[in-house]
Amino acid sequence: MLYATYSECEETIVRAGIDAIRAYFRTANKQKKRDLLFCLDKYLDPWFGYNLPYAEEIFCFLEEIVLSSGECVDIAEDALNLIGSYGHTTDILEEHLDLVPESLQFYAKIVIAESKGVLYMGFALNDLDRYFIKSDLIPAIAVDVKTGQVLMLAYMNKESLRKTLETGYTWYWSRSRQELWNKGATSGHLQKVVSIFADCDNDTLLVKVEQTGAACHTGNYSCFFTQIYGEPEMK
User: Fold this and answer.
1) pLDDT tens, 92-114?
2) Cα–Cα distance measured from residue 15 to residue 100, given in angstroms and rounded to the nearest whole number
3) What residues contact residue 205 under an 8 Å CB cut-off, 6+ apart?
4) Continuous segment of H or E residues that includes residue 53
5) 8 Å CB contact between 183 and 160
6) How many CB atoms lie within 10 A of CB 84?
7) Quick check: helix, strand or coil at residue 169?
8) Could you say which of 2, 61, 118, 224 has the lowest number of CB atoms within 10 Å?
9) Enclosing H/E stretch for 205
10) Beta-bridge mates of residue 180
11) Helices (DSSP H) in the chain: which residue ranges?
């Protein structure tokens, strides 16, 4: 690995150049913006072996593009791909995640997590077989992330688990209807996934969610509302 060092004067010139790139990007048309991102891709490529002391500014710039893309979602996606390719994020993207185009928010969370050395949701989408060695279905226990209350038990097959990871909302397999179902898609009582844990045998999942409305089809918040043993609990 080669390490480049720069004088204070050179640093000033480089930062002025980055400011000029920012200004150019604001006025350029879509194709020129893509050309510029392609140039930055080549520039950041670690194949060249340089430790660039001003790479942080460039990543800040890329994150600004993601957050301020407006209707140019494809440009935002290009910039997000660059950030993800080189495994680096600054605090800007994480602090202003709500400004990321909705269609890219799940991907942005993955990029942020992986830049910190964390595999988002603890899963690799291409490595789901380990959870279905014993059966085509795996029990999934949904828990309210804020209160710890158990909301429901359902089952996932490989496809529903994949869709859960891809969308960030729970999908289950209905054993009675023999079909996939997106929890709350018709009722509006959605479950936004915060995290998923597998047990020690990889044959049960604990899904921590932000629950909208009631988890149970009866209208109760939790499916576990009928006590059959023990001292009465205070509501």
Assistant:
1) 888 998 899 888 887 888 888 77
2) 25
3) 131, 138, 139, 140, 141, 156, 161, 196, 197, 198, 199
4) none
5) no
6) 17
7) strand
8) 2
9) strand 205-211
10) 173
11) 8-27, 30-44, 55-67, 73-85, 91-95, 105-115, 158-167
- The one-letter amino acid at 228: I
Q: What is the CA radius of gyration of the chain?
A: 23
- What is the average pLDDT across 221-225? 95
Token look-up 């209208």 returns 219
Q: How many CA atoms lie within 13 A of 92 on its CB side?
A: 18
Residue matched to tokens 């400004």: 99
pTM of the model: 0.52
User: The tokens of 187 are what?
Assistant: 């009722």
Backbone φ and ψ for 16, nearest 5 degrees, come out as -65, -35
What distances in angstroms separate CA 25 from CA 54, 60, 86, one per listed residue?
18, 14, 21
Question: Which amino acid makes up residue 85?
Answer: S
What's the gap between Cα 199 and its chain centre? Answer: 22
Q: Distance of CA 189 to CAs 5, 106, 165, 184, 195, Å? A: 56, 20, 18, 4, 18
User: Strand 138-144 vs strand 205-211: parallel, antiparallel, or unpaired?
Assistant: parallel
215 contacts 221 by C-beta, under 8 angstroms? yes
Q: Which residues share a beta bridge with 139?
A: 155
**Nearest C-alpha neighbor of 162 from the set 190, 193, 128, 204:** 128
Which range of 18-27, 116-125, 138-147 scores highest in mean pLDDT? It is 138-147
**Full DSSP string of 116-160:** TT--GGG--TT--GGGGSS-S-EEEEEEETTT--EEEEEEE-HHH
